[in-house]
Predict the 3D structure of the following.
Amino acid sequence: MDKPRMATLWLDGCSGCHMSVLDMDERILEILGQVELVYSPLVDTKEFPSNVTLTLVEGAIASKEDAAFIQRVRANTKWLVALGDCAITGNVPGMRNAISLERLFGASYQKLSAATAITELLPQVLPLHQVVPVDLFLPGCPPPVAAIYALFQEFLWAVNEANGDLEAMRFTFDATQYTGFGR
Amino acid sequence: MNESNTTTTKITIEPVTRIEGHARITLQMNEDGEVNQAFFHVTQFRGFEAFCVGRPFYELPGILSRTCGICPVSHLIAGAKACDDLLAVEIPPVANRLRKVMHLAQILQSHALSYFFLSAPDLVFGMNGNVKQRNICGLAEQTPELAKRGILLRKTGQGIIELLGGRRIHPTWVVPGGVSAPLSTSARDSILAMLPQAREEVLKTLNWHKGLMPKFNQEIQALANFSSLYAGLVNRKGYARHYDGRIRFMDSNGNVIQDHVEASQYPQFIEETEQPWTYMKFPFYRPFGEERGMYRVGPLARLNIADGLGTPLADRELQEFKTMSSEPIRASFHYHWARLIEMLYAIEKIELLLNDEDILSNHVRSIAAPNRLEGIGMVEAPRGLLIHHYRIDENGLVTGVNLIVATGHNNSAMNRGILQAARVFVRKERMEEGMLNAVEAVIRCFDPCLSCATHAFGRPRLQIQLLSAKGEVLHELAS
């Protein structure tokens, strides 16, 4: 049986959710041994591949480039996970939403302006589910390690149950026992 | 993509991978097929300077630590120090020592991430190694002991942060005036128990790394190897400081050109400029102007400017490191080596700090209202000098924020380094993946944190593009 193909990506966020994934410590090796990591900031793939079973997305949608990219990711992913509060609510990147792009650039730069920017920033940062359907939500800033590890375990269990038939695979995950406000 | 044409060519690498952030590289070639210009574009914008305005000052360390999930502790501490300055209080000595422990733990975990997870794949498999294997998964298969060592050292740093602050990422324990809770005996003992193994693992890695160096002569010569100024924090004796100290600027011959610059004096010496093709600003040493004022910061710069570190094993390693040259070490490839020496220093220094008998004192916070309307906090983040500068009104609400982040200081040097490496490694007639990886490896030497660098804005990926003289795209590695 082929290993399930996994991807992780980082849109408008701080990389803290990826760090929380690495905070599994030795368990990273246990998980990586059972999946094929086909796209991630940790590997040198330049194009998002097809036929990915599980994609974890950190960060919000901040630009037209992000929005186009997440469409490509969605089209090639079976299970899409919004990883952390920026992907789920917009969180810290969304704090700019009340301020016009002109004022944002004015506060940060002397010469650069929104009109000549090198990326087409959206006037409002959007959570993932406003742009593409999301299958699972894993909250936290960042999500706790226990929640991330449990998600991987459930996922690998579901893959195993499906016995190679990833099309028919059923996968659910209840994050509430691992996460919560104020924890 | 590789559209040949009769005149000139442009290569784009996007995203640049195994780096901490979103970026792309453009290489411009001339009629003879030589790379004559290189641009490092950082493509994330976040707007912290604008949306922090109007908020209470004491929220800033917590919000601004969200600039970066890799070095949140640096932002937390620089922010808290800027707030200490607003309060105009002296914080309890034990609070300073406890903050130092957390800060050094963060340098340890951040350097472990950079060295083992991001750059070791290039060291083990080579710049032309199999692209599918050239990552942490390949490392775990090929050299499992090295992968496990990286995990252990990162875990040690993160574990110390958790024991002090209750969580590994975005802790809130460092506050204006000190820290929010004293250290418990059991936490101290747990930390002390982790250190001996961590020290052994760093020493083994140092030996391994030194043995590798002869294989990387070409990279040492070509990956951002040039003269520049250097900047970092030192104490009165000229020893490197990470939590406190004042700025020293050194020239490429090793002369101290400015010493003991206070946080409040930074605008006299550091000026920033902008370019339309990147969100990352270009700081330079003001007295020398934009052309001659390029300086480097971070582990290599810190070791170059320092007369010593102040712990026995790290000082022994520093001495050996410095025997490579009578002048400051120019090769940015040696950032990796410098990172290992700093990891050793962090472990030794944490042990010294925790063995101080006052470390368990309950007096860890000074309480005050703001007594000044402007405050500046300065630390050495893992990647170099970090400055938080806040202005508030009479009610303690923020009226202005300026951040000068570590990665930004290295912006000019990274751009120049990419050009140097591309001229050596990139051949128009025979474009190969490994050549572009060598160019990306320049970036990995500096270990830039692009979410920090573009606190102003956001997206963590790097892209490389090869353009013709007419501006047509000839080759592209993109996502």
